[in-house]
Amino acid sequence: MIAGRHSSSETSAARLAEYLLSLDGNVLILANGPMGSGKTTFTRMLGAALGISSKITSPTFVGLHEYKGDGLEFLHFDIYQVPVSYYDIKELLISSSVRKILLIEWAEKLGTETVAKLKAEGLKVVVLDFTLENGEHLITSTPI
Length: 144
What we know:
By secondary structure, the chain is α/β, with parallel strands linked by helices. It has helices at residues 10-22, 39-49, 86-93, 112-120, and strands at 4-7, 27-32, 64-68, 73-78, 100-105, 124-133, 136-143.
């Protein structure tokens, strides 16, 4: 799974995890979509596929949860109620010697200028657009 439209499933999560682990450096995943479209559920599946053994829970009211895996950290940020800036993300990802994958829910709130600045810093960025159609959770993925 990388470019295209997919069902939100463990298979899709495993394919994305494989792709993310093949990249050098830190990765920013921008998860967009309405409430109930499956962002947190997919994040749990992705974390498991990345080898995270801890229970992944929604960080809605705290903003950020950090999970340690084998040789990487998986960060789960929910910015629905917690504002985040370019500098917050830069501090988490760019100023670190540990390999990190950061998934941000409600990433559409970041704005294109912030994303462009982060990409200019050398971050790999993947956009996941979540939808719910006829009871099925779907993801359109785009590397940028």
